[in-house]
Structures are given as C-alpha cells and as structure tokens.
Design a protein that fits this description.
Blueprint lengths: L2 H8 L17 E5 L12 E8 H16 L6 E5 L12 E8 L5 H14 L6 E5 H5 L14 E3 L3
Antiparallel strand pairs: 1-3, 2-4, 2-5, 3-4, 5-6
C-alpha cells in the first residue's frame, strides 16, 4: 500500500468537517470515495487546481462532494493554512485530484471535463505525474514545465 492510499484511508473513519483555510495542524485535507479503492502506483498523476484562499473552502467542499459521489478518480486533497515549503504563494491554495493511470488519457480527460464544468474553473488546468513530483518538478524549484497534460488542451 502506498503513501496516498494510507493517508486517504485514514480519513475514511468518523466524519469530521475540516475547513482548509482554518486548518493549521496538517498540510492536506483528504477526500476519499466511499466505494472506489485508490492505490497509487507508478502511473499515478493528478490535476492541480489553484484558487485564491477567499474561495478555496467552497471549491474544496464541491470537490469533496464529487469524490464522495464517485464522479472522480477516488482520492483528492486540498492544501490548508499550514505553511508548506513547496507552496508558491501564501494567498492561494491548491486542490489535487488524483487519477490512478496517467496513460489512460480518456479517464484523465473525463475527470478534467467534470472539474472544469462543475467548478467553473476559468484558467487552464494542469496534470502532473507523481514521477514528476518525486523528481522535484515544482515551479518554486525552477521547473519550467511540471505537467504532461493541460485542460482545455491547447
């Protein structure tokens, strides 16, 4: 079992309402599908949605509902108010929506279309593999391209 699935499973216990911008004791809040088992592997990746903190809590609530309704890939997480060394801005946060296989472009783009529509996301969304993350591909560390897909494509 991998790090992602362990963390996601730990949140499946008792229901606890956590608000990203009011959470200071952990870097991430997690949402897990009640029926899909998500096990990350060598082809895991994620859509990254960046939001101003003024709307982050509402957008996280929407993504959490989508995950719990089994409309997405099974696991998502949201940054919190805890200072993260990988964050590029203290004024924004990120919601990460995982998919199990970045080579399954149909599923990857299906999830992107749902996120784009349901969240009314106005900017391009970017998809990054876990391999890129483990290799340290962050804008903050100088990576000029830290994604493999974009939605809408262009």
């Amino acid at each position: 079992m991998t790090y992602i699935s362990k963390l996601a499973m730990s949140t499946s216990g008792t229901a606890k309402v956590s608000i990203p911008t009011q959470t200071f004791d952990t870097y991430w809040l997690w949402a897990k599908s009640p029926s899909k088992d998500f096990v990350s592997g060598p082809r895991t990746g994620k859509w990254m949605l960046f939001y101003d903190k003024s709307v982050l809590d509402d957008k996280w609530a929407a993504v959490k509902r989508l995950v719990e309704q089994d409309l997405l890939g099974g696991v998502a997480k949201c940054s919190t108010a805890m200072e993260n060394p990988n964050a590029t801005s203290s004024k924004s946060g990120v919601i990460i929506v995982y998919t199990p296989d970045y080579q399954d472009e149909e599923d990857v783009y299906r999830i992107a279309a749902i996120l784009h529509e349901k969240l009314d996301y106005k900017k391009p969304m970017y998809y990054k593999t876990d391999e890129q993350t483990y290799a340290g591909a962050y804008r903050k560390t100088g990576s000029t391209k830290n994604h493999i897909y974009r939605y809408p494509p262009g």
